[in-house]
Design a protein that fits this description.
169 residues; Beta-Lactamase; alpha+beta; globular; single chain
Length: 169
């Protein structure tokens, strides 16, 4: 299975990263739902400023909500907590992980590429897209997942929240 990771060059400044993230962010093989989530996130920009958690409005994306996950990003040291889990993702994981730290929910979490991907999104304001075998799961009824990490602020200037959308097949 193909694994594709999309991110923008780290040497670009913040404004360029934000704007670059809007161009050709997904491969042509990405699902239509991924494109819808990306278009929604794009619509939340205010100039070149990343969207804020307060800008997220579930009424605008009702059909996508089952695959949405919001992840809080804590720093110093980096640690990640599930804020909200869509019902399809609850079913895939076998329980609602809202409120759980990712490294507690998935004991092997820190051995995967996911922590590094999240830090890259947070530090460099990039999009991270992946399509391939799941790295973390409770339910083994699917063999492929497609997901996107989209950076958001949480009242400040730092990326402290990920808008995540996942499809498991």
């Amino acid at each position: 299975m193909d694994c594709v990771l999309w991110a923008r060059a780290k040497r670009m400044n913040r404004l360029e990263l934000r704007l670059a993230a809007l161009d050709d962010a997904l491969p042509e093989t990405a699902s239509p739902e991924m494109a819808q989530v990306l278009a929604y996130w794009r619509s939340l920009f205010k100039g070149d400023v990343l969207p804020d958690r307060r800008d997220l409005d579930p009424v605008q994306i009702p059909k996508l909500l089952p695959g949405i996950i919001l992840i809080d990003i804590h720093r110093d040291p980096y640690r990640f907590r599930f804020r909200l889990i869509g019902e399809r993702m609850v079913a895939y994981h076998g329980r609602n992980l809202a409120g759980f730290w990712m490294d507690e929910a998935f004991p092997h979490f820190n051995e995967t590429a996911t922590p590094g991907n999240i830090v890259d999104v947070a530090e460099n304001h990039v999009i991270n897209y992946r399509n391939g075998p799941p790295l973390m799961t409770y339910q083994k009824t699917f063999i492929e997942m497609e997901r996107i990490f989209l950076p958001c602020r949480n009242g400040g200037d730092l990326v402290e929240l990920l808008l995540t959308f996942t499809i498991c097949r």
